[in-house]
Write a structure and sequence with these properties.
Blueprint: H1 2-44, H2 47-61, H3 66-83, H4 86-103, H5 106-123, H6 126-142, H7 146-162, H8 166-182, H9 186-203, H10 206-222, H11 226-237, H12 246-262, H13 266-281, H14 286-315
Helix pairs in contact: 1-2, 1-13, 2-3, 2-4, 3-4, 4-5, 5-6, 6-7, 6-8, 7-8, 8-9, 8-10, 9-10, 10-11, 10-12, 11-12, 12-13, 12-14, 13-14
Amino acid sequence: MHCFKINRLINNKVFFLILFFLSSINYSFSQNTHIDSLSNKLRKAYGYEKIDLLNSLAEYYIYANLPKALDYAQQALMGSKKYKYSNGIAKSYMNIGRIYDYMGDYSKGEDYYMKSISQNNKIGKYSNICNAYYCLGEIFVKKADFSKAYSCYIKGLQISERENDHNSQSYISNNIGFLYIILNDDEKAKTIFEKSLKNAIASKSIRRIIESYLGLAYFFQKRNDFVKMHYYLYKASKIIDKSKNMRVKINLYTHYGDYFLNIGDYIKAIDLYQQALMFSKSTNDKYDESIIYTRISHIYQLQKNIIFRCNIILKH
């Protein structure tokens, strides 16, 4: 029976590889068409227009080719400084920060996020400052420096509240909620997750609503309330097709995999982790990949232990 389950795990892995390949054809074609369009415009552009196109190309290549993305972002930064284009400088700093962050060079990522905050502060782009503080906080979470992460999130949240920016309030609050869970402060975690959902609904952002549902799902997972965990995962899954954001899809499939892992349905869990893993490869985010690989390895180890125990029982 357990051998049959393992064979199903392998077969399901192959199935989802094929499914992902087929579903990604249209996405890749659409993305490549847009990149080609930007590249064609770039050949004739100059000044501010050229800088904006370089930054747009950098953003697209972040999910396809990090070295190429870095080259475009650095060209944009050089051009922005030449023409004294303040918005271009701020955008270039942010893009370069994200690229180094995704490359795993957190020191350089942190440096460029700080430069982005400083530049955006000069030009009054407060929503961009919130985003930079959020990304900076994520770097500190990856480095397990939760105190600095919390400080960055709070700074971003305070600015977003001052500017009545519901979108920024939602995603920053959500990450603060995760930190409260890490710090074992369940009461504050639940309150701020609910605050995140309220702001997400006010912002009318599908992505933020899904992220808030996932935050609440994680909260109930940690309390071993898998009925409520599934309730919020189900609500997120009903609207996931309306979001084009890969990170949201990765997080949903990973959390759903966690649900089935917790209730002991390893086959469904591995199916969902495989889907999350395939989407994560398209974002070039090594941190997400490592988390999902750890979960998959854990399941295979559990399966191996079950077979080992069954063999001992059969021998006796």
